[in-house]
Specification:
Blueprint lengths: L2 E3 L1 H11 L12 H11 L2 E2 L12 H7 L4 H8 L6 E5 L3 E5 L7 H12 L5 H4 L1 H14 L2 E2 L19 H12 L2 E7 L2 E6 H4 L2 H4 L5 H16 L1 E2 L1 H6 L5 H13 L3 E6 L3 E2 L2 E2 L2 E4 L11 E3 L10 H8 L20 E6 L2 E11 L4 E9 L7 H15 L4 E4 L6 H8 L1
Parallel strand pairs: 1-9, 16-17
Antiparallel strand pairs: 2-4, 3-4, 5-7, 6-7, 8-12, 9-12, 10-11, 13-14, 14-15, 15-16
Helix pairs in contact: 11-13, 15-16
């Protein structure tokens, strides 16, 4: 008999697996930061800084106010215990996990590095020169490399040939990231950044995929095949093989979740055998658009009945909710969304829009106001200012007063 889990039960399992519902430490140390990265397996990176860079936000959502310099120390310094790779999208992960993505590096090389008519092969002179430059002078940011090919083309986001080559070499695992400076990647030959025990570690693709799917299941608590595959952006076919093997070993337990349906039938799902199953869960958090709780939009819709699309690239007249909108998590529900801007020059946190979801509890404005005061204090800002757009904005402005 396949176990049936209620929709609220599934939400609590998923949020508990993500580190919500636990007492927040009075002081956040590097031990708690390392522990959180261990729990999540990765922190997705994004360059948008209108409120705060995305990799800082999942930590604040789960642990509360902390010193961002501590996170920088364990992630962006040259000898930090974490590095970067394309784990979900560009993400911070433990250095020892680098070898689990060697199969992805080989796949990228086959697709982009080997074809004779591809960019990488037709720019071999630039690539060879960069290897020598990194060997002699690395680690280096792309902006520090002097070369005739290091000029942007096209609009402001256009990469130079030097940046293009460095990124391909990063995809292939030939180059690793030796931290960041002013948020710019510092590139180095992998052998100059990673120790021999990591570089020499060989993990068969099937074993690596199984381990990554296992970690996805631990981090999700409960999920469908699509959920488990998406966490590390694994194709469904190999993910399905891994799920079957983990089910056979007893680590994944098949379940159905009320309301999780596909084509009118209950969708197959699995719960990790060690997942916590809290009867209630207390949480109050602003979620980054790239938080694992919501980054897979199909899962966010299925689990929270929350239709979410980031509108950064939508022309302003066509935006529905705002430029950089963060989901609002209260307990085990997403109850609204809020468009925030860190006005560093004026020293205020600006609420450019605030909206509720259907069925948001009556105390939403009061709880969000408390959360915003905490957020402003963490950001070193003196006040919170509401612009008035959105159905939550008037009550939120009143609660903040």
């Amino acid at each position: 008999m396949v176990e049936k889990i209620s929709s609220p039960g599934a939400r609590r399992i998923a949020l508990a697996a993500q580190g919500f519902g636990r007492p927040r430490p009075s002081v956040v140390s590097t031990r708690q930061l390392n522990g959180l990265v261990d729990r999540l397996n990765l922190l997705q990176i994004d360059s948008v800084n209108v409120f705060e860079r995305s990799h800082y936000l999942p930590v604040f959502a789960r642990l509360g106010a902390y010193d961002k310099a501590l996170l920088d120390r364990i992630t962006f310094e040259a000898k930090a215990p974490h590095t970067e790779y394309w784990a979900h999208e560009a993400a911070l992960l433990r250095r020892e996990d680098w070898a689990l993505f060697r199969w992805r590096m080989l796949d990228y090389r086959r697709r982009y590095g080997d074809p004779e008519d591809g960019w990488f092969q037709t720019n071999r002179s630039t690539v060879d020169w960069l290897r020598a430059e990194l060997a002699a002078n690395g680690p280096l940011a792309a902006s520090e490399i002097e070369h005739d090919a290091n000029k942007r083309t096209g609009p402001w986001w256009g990469w130079s040939d030097v940046k293009q080559a460095l990124e391909y070499m990063f995809y292939f695992g030939e180059v690793a990231i030796a931290g960041r400076s002013r948020f710019q990647r510092r590139y180095a030959l992998a052998g100059d950044v990673l120790p021999a025990e990591i570089l020499d570690r060989q993990v068969d693709e099937a074993d690596a995929v199984r381990e990554l799917v296992r970690r996805s299941a631990v981090a999700h608590g409960v999920g469908t095949l699509g959920d488990l595959a998406d966490y590390f952006r694994i194709k469904r076919a190999p993910a399905s093989v891994a799920v079957r093997e983990l089910e056979e070993s007893g680590e994944l337990v098949p379940v159905t979740v009320h309301g999780w349906e596909r084509n009118g039938k209950p969708e197959k799902a699995w719960v990790h055998r060690d997942a916590r199953r809290p009867r209630r869960l207390e949480a109050s958090a602003l979620l980054s658009p790239f938080d694992p709780v919501v980054w897979y939009r199909d899962r966010a819709l299925r689990m929270f009945d929350f239709h979410y699309r980031i509108e950064i690239y939508t022309p302003e007249p066509k935006r529905v909710f705002g430029y950089y909108v963060l989901p609002i998590l209260l307990d085990d529900r997403i109850v609204g969304r809020i468009d925030l801007k860190n006005d560093r020059q004026s020293g205020v946190l600006r609420v450019q829009a605030a909206w509720t979801e259907p069925g948001a509890p009556a105390d939403t404005a009061e709880r969000v106001a408390t959360l915003l005061h905490e957020t402003a204090a963490w950001q070193g800002l003196g006040d919170v200012v509401v612009s008035g757009r959105g159905d939550l904005a008037p009550a939120l402005a009143s609660a903040l007063r």
